[in-house]
């Protein structure tokens, strides 16, 4: 069965016939969305087949995997005549942190943190001078070894312009806008057209494109307090489109993973405790916005 005729089919065709993602980026997405919650290991043939649906050749896949091995993100193992690649421990930790942002983001920043007497600046902090920095006050923000002051949220006119100077808000907004241009039509069609969800192979391909496109913007987003963002900030709409589309595609995509992505040595389950946790968090987020 294919996507039914109508807006959903047009939107899906536009996405899957568009420019192919970079091979390394899509492979990282495959590991993050498919492999990480299912043990973290994939057969090379699985990667080649997944990428082929997006117009990425076998040679590009093998080159990208080799580079990811060289960068310490993947490590390989040969079993019989087949090569398998799994996440390294360091990469696994990075993927876990990224998964938190994608599938279960922490509560929005409630204010600001200001560090004084800073020797080194942790990720996410913006410099205010040689030994001072500012960051959004979120539960996942790393605290530096320095004096840290908590500041309440401030009026928009007090921080909007400085925030745009301290963080790349313009670039992040462009990424979210590009994501919306690509996926908002699909989200709308899947939400409103009866019988629109695609079959398993197409659902998985669309979900991988969805995650790949959203991941770049979401991981670059400093997730500042609302007062520091412009009133037309596209990140809010992008998040809603991501959650809605992911949930609409998940059932068929996960079934496809269980049926066709594993082999006898490295079986892939349709669902695991980790994948169910992701779905539960996304459903809870979606229900809060109804």
From TrEMBL:
Q: Which Gene3D superfamilies match?
A: 1.20.58.1460, Winged helix-like DNA-binding domain superfamily/Winged helix DNA-binding domain
SUPFAM superfamilies referenced in this protein's UniProt entry, alphabetically: Winged helix' DNA-binding domain
Ranges for the Transcriptional repressor PaaX-like C-terminal domain? 167-254
Q: Which residues form the Transcriptional repressor PaaX-like N-terminal domain?
A: 22-88
Q: Name the source's superkingdom.
A: Bacteria
Question: What Pfam family is a match, any one?
Answer: PaaX
Which InterPro entries does the annotation name? PaaX-like_N, PaaX_C, PaaX_trns_reg, WH-like_DNA-bd_sf, WH_DNA-bd_sf
Q: What is this protein called?
A: PaaX family transcriptional regulator C-terminal domain-containing protein
């Amino acid at each position: 069965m294919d996507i039914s005729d109508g807006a959903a089919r047009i939107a899906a065709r536009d996405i899957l016939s568009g420019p192919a993602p970079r091979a390394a980026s899509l492979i990282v997405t495959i590991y993050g969305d498919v492999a990480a919650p299912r043990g973290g290991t994939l057969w090379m043939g699985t990667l080649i087949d997944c990428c082929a649906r997006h117009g990425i050749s076998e040679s590009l896949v093998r080159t990208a995997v080799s580079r990811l091995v060289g960068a310490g993100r993947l490590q390989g193992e040969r079993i019989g005549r087949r090569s398998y690649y799994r996440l390294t421990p360091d990469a696994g930790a990075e993927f876990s942190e990224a998964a938190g942002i994608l599938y279960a983001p922490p509560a929005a920043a409630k204010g600001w943190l200001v560090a004084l007497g800073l020797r080194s600046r942790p990720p996410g902090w913006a410099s205010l001078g040689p030994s001072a920095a500012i960051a959004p006050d979120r539960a996942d923000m790393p605290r530096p070894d320095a004096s840290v002051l908590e500041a309440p949220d401030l009026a928009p006119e007090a921080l909007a312009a400085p925030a745009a100077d301290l963080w790349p808000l313009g670039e992040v907004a462009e990424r979210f806008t590009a994501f919306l241009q690509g996926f908002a039509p699909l989200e709308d069609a899947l939400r409103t057209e009866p019988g629109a969800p695609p079959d398993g192979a197409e659902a998985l391909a669309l979900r991988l494109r969805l995650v790949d496109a959203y991941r770049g913007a979401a991981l670059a987003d400093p997730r500042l307090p609302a007062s520091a963002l412009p009133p037309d900030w596209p990140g809010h709409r992008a998040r809603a489109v991501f959650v809605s589309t992911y949930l609409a595609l998940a059932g068929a995509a996960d079934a496809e993973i269980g049926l066709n992505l594993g082999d006898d040595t490295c079986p892939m389950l349709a669902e695991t405790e980790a994948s169910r946790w992701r779905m539960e968090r996304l459903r809870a987020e979606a229900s809060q916005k109804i």
